[in-house]
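As practice, study what follows.
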Amino acid sequence: MTTSERTKMAAGEWYSCIDDELEALRAAARDAVFEHNSLPPRQRGNMGPALRALLGGAGEGARIEAPFHCAYGFNLFLGDGTFLNAGCTILDTAPVRIGKRTLLGPNVQIYCAEHHREASGRQAGLEIARPVTISDHAWIGGSAVILAGINIGEGAIVGAGAVVTRDVAADTTVVGNPARAIMRR
């Protein structure tokens, strides 16, 4: 029996993103994101209805400003009162868990997919998905980039424009590219 590319993706194994089932799931996400981004703000509320239905979970008062983009949606879990500012991009090939009362500034990018290191693997669409977790009460500054497999601790701060390549401990502030700790409460 052949394992589907979606099953491989969910299991954290190498999979081909050039796959009809995965493309259909991305198309559904694009439709939900289009609705969210196109609705007038008063009609959209905290998030468009199709996007809310698509997400893996959205806590009470979770809000996503437009424009927004996600790859699949069903791998995105938002805690109560979480706020994603305009322009956020989340490539949720693996679960992305964002804790309660966490703030993401404008244009924050979260990438769960890692592409193959060999050119032939990239041409075949090979990726591996690694989850990202951002704990409660964190603050991710505008235009920060969070790479695959990263865990950001409770109360941590990621400075604007930082590129997070390693885990961030609780109550720690990181800045720069690559992000490095500058202080701990």
The mean pLDDT is 97.
